[in-house]
Design a protein that fits this description.
single chain; alpha/beta; Aspartate Aminotransferase, domain 2; 12% strand; Aspartate Aminotransferase, domain 1; 14 helices; binds pyridoxal-5'-phosphate; 2 domains
């Protein structure tokens, strides 16, 4: 999926502000390992802008999810409820601790965790539920939190798509005890590979710092809280180089420009494809009125698998790369080992065949986008 062989690639990461300058400064500082000045500034930025008790940069969203599973003490035999329609890491993180994934279907409108099925999937072994805010449009958090509370289940958010999105006026990433963010090159804000663990439950902060620092209390040592540091818990090396944090901070600081560019692209797709979608029986993304989305992606739901493949081929013939998204995890080789079977998540199985994501990146020009729009508008399934 590399950018160069396509006239219009699916994604094209761009530097939007002071990335080079900050990188040079990080190199000149002589400290390029983790938790340097740029990392600390990224932490402060996320803490104040999202409104969480603690933010910790990680090497990826995958690693933030793994940290969550450790911090929740997920053990062999525990059950975790999560959508089948998600990236593999959402599930792997918990399976690595010995959990059994219990797959919930998604809502046909937002393609999010179907909160109406949550209650019936809870058993006495359920330890956690993981809403994934698909395309950055928030899940039905009021219902999810109330079911979780009444059944004693922890909620943690996979917010890889949803940084700065809101649900009923409150930012995504602030609902669960923790949330995971991604700064992979396909996400709105990027340093190539990277992530963050956002922590809302303050009781988890101290241990999170230990788990992230190879199971040692090194962070407390640096703050002068202990006079030597030692191995106190399980953990791994989850902190990214300050070089990456330098790039990420510059991206955060360009937030207004990035979000404005993405909003414009999203709205042009939406306005330009509404009539066509009506005519051919396709559907555009649904964003309920009580949510703000951060314009992470634009997708189409075509009327059939054939129509989706046909449109992809048509776009490809013009040098435009469009891509489908998640294959149902419950039907994957691993998913079947956990009892996954056809028909278990019918909406997931259906939309997975029909969904197509269009090129979406900050520097997508109007003329590039016009070519995508015209190609689609001329397509009849
Ligand atoms: C991108 C993504 C991840 C993984 O992010 P990495 O930073 O690449 O580990 C996890 N969950 C979802 C929903 C994602 O889109």
């Amino acid at each position: 999926m590399s950018g160069n062989e396509w006239l219009i690639p699916f994604n094209r990461p761009s530097f939007e502000g002071r990335e080079h300058e900050y990188l040079e400064a990080a190199i000149a500082s002589g400290q390029i390992s983790g938790d340097g000045v740029f990392t600390k500034r990224c932490h402060s930025y996320l803490e104040s802008e999202v409104g969480v008790a603690k933010a910790l940069l990680t090497t990826s969203c995958t690693h933030a999810l793994e940290m969550m599973a450790i911090l929740l003490d997920i053990k062999e035999g525990d059950e975790v409820i999560l959508p089948s329609f998600t990236f593999v890491s959402t599930v792997n993180a918990f399976v690595l601790r010995g959990a059994k994934p219990v797959f919930v279907d998604v809502r046909p409108d937002t393609l999010n965790f179907d909160e109406r099925q949550f209650d019936e999937l809870v058993t006495e072994r359920t330890r956690a539920a993981v809403p994934v805010h698909y395309a950055g449009v928030g899940c039905e958090m009021d219902v999810i939190l109330s079911v979780a509370e009444s059944s004693g289940v922890a909620v943690v958010e996979d917010n890889a798509h949803g940084l700065f999105g809101t649900y009923r006026g409150r930012q995504l990433g602030t609902f669960g005890s923790m949330a995971a963010q991604s700064f992979h090159e396909t996400k709105n804000f990027t340093c190539g590979e990277g992530g963050a663990l956002l922590i809302n439950d303050e009781r988890l902060v101290e241990r999170a710092e230990i788990v992230r620092e190879k199971g040692t209390n090194r962070s407390r040592f640096f703050r002068g809280l202990v006079d030597k540091y030692t191995w106190t818990d399980i953990g791994s090396s989850y902190l990214p180089s300050d070089l990456l944090a330098a790039v990420l901070l510059a991206q955060f600081e360009a937030r207004t420009a990035i979000q404005e560019a993405r909003r414009r692209i999203w709205e042009r797709y939406s306005a330009g494809l509404a009539d066509w979608a009506d005519q051919v029986g396709a559907r555009l993304p649904v964003v309920p009125a009580d949510r703000e989305q951060p314009f992470h992606m634009f997708y189409l739901l075509l009327p059939s698998l054939d129509a989706r493949q046909g449109l992809m081929a048509r776009l490809k013939s013009k040098g435009i790369l469009s891509v489908f998204h998640y294959l149902p995890l419950h039907l994957s080789e691993m998913g079947r080992r956990f009892g996954g079977r056809p028909g278990q998540c019918p909406v997931t199985e259906d939309v997975s065949d029909r969904l197509l994501r269009l090129p979406f990146y900050n520097r997508l020009s109007e003329s590039e986008q016009d070519l995508v729009l015209e190609t689609i508008q001329g397509f009849r399934p």
